[in-house]
Amino acid sequence: MVLRKFFRSALALLHTVIQGPQSDCFIIVNMWLPKPKDYKVLCVKLCGNLKFYQSHFYGTVVPPDEVTVNYRHGLPLITLTLPSRKERCQFVVKPMLSTVGSFLQDLQNEDKGVKTAAIFTADGSEIPASTLMEILLMNDFKLVINKVPYDVQCPKKEKLSMEHATQMENVKSLVHRLFTALHLEEFQKKREHLLLEKIDHLKGQLRPLEQIKAGIEARSEAKTSRLLWAGLALLSVQGGALAWLTWWVYSWDIMEPVTYFITVANSMVFFAYFIITRQDYTYSAVKSRQFLHFFHKKSKKQHFDVVQYNKLKEDLAKATESLKQVRHSLYLRMQGKELNGKN
Q1: Which residue pairs from 223-229 have beta carbons closer than 8 angstroms and sit at least 24 positions apart in sequence?
Q2: Residue 256 DSSP symbol
Q3: Are 45 and 18 in contact (CB under 8 A)?
């Protein structure tokens, strides 16, 4: 009986300490045993170093600003974060039809906050807008949006065999020919409309320049004509002076060496003109050169841009020539339809 009370008193004050095998954490259990076989846990608390009970999780979450390229259903999918909305957006790319310029245009249309966008190679060379996306996605590149660069890593595609590549090229050529045959007339009519609009726009830009140019040409032509008449008057005075000195003042024996040296001096002047201008001294060449000299001088005074005018004239000539070719093709196509209808 005494032994039984002793064990009850000892267990009432017992603190059972359980230590984990690989940690510094202890579990202290306070137990009260009023009766033998009646165990009751009063409290359980954790103490010590809790770092060993923290869980660490690792993943492959894409950073919010990273530009990724994936393939879905055989088509490239470019995922990026829009600058204005800070949202992830996916762009489906058609490699054989889309170009770098069309992709950048789609990006700017999707987010009006994209002011500037360009694509560069890994070594910093800018990629032209006419480059096909199929060629761009062969290597890693750098996408710059609003002067913020993004390094883009393209997944490597399996190389096609020679036979499969040849078949793909044949399919591309066949599709291109079918598209041309089915949409040629529509394409030519659309091109004719665009060329007409371009010609009208160029003519509208040239109209005020033509008026300024006409005024400058008129004044330059008048000044050139006055200069030519002044040259004729100078030669007439020279001939009259030599005749007066020969018959009225001196004799021919005295004036002959004078006329000789005057002729030599004129020859030296003409030769110097050729050395400076690299042109023969002809009256038409001298007139054209002097006209251009007056024209450019007056153009600067009136702020007439000769380079812009020449560029507009060249663009107008090219557009007019392209329009003639398109209309000629449409005319031949119409003739072919009429012959087929008669047959």
Answers
A1: 223/294, 224/287, 224/290, 224/291, 224/294, 227/290, 228/283, 228/287
A2: H
A3: no
Which long-range contacts link 116-120 to residues 24+ away (Cβ below 8 Å)? 116/144, 116/145, 116/146, 116/147, 117/143, 117/144, 117/145, 117/146, 118/144, 119/143, 119/144, 120/144, 120/149
DSSP letter string, 32-65? EEEETTEEEEEEEEEES--GGG-------PPPTT
Mind listing the pLDDT tens digit for each residue in 116-151? 888 998 888 888 888 888 888 888 888 888 888 888
Task: Report whether 52 contacts 25 (CB < 8 A).
Answer: yes
For 217-231, give the DSSP string: HHHHHHHHHHHHHHH
Q: With residue 8 as reference, give the H or E element that holds it.
A: helix 2-12
Cα–Cα separations (whole angstroms), residue 174 to 165, 179, 181, 249, 322:
14, 9, 11, 95, 27
Q: What is the mean pLDDT of the chain?
A: 76
Count CB neighbours of 103 within 10 A: 20
Q: Are 139 and 154 in contact (CB under 8 A)?
A: yes
Phi, psi of 161 (to 5 degrees): -70, 165
For 185-196, b/e burial (b = at least 16 CB within 10 A) is eeebeebbeebe
The one-letter code for the residue type at 313 is K
- Separation between Cα atoms, residue 206 and residue 112, nearest integer Å: 34
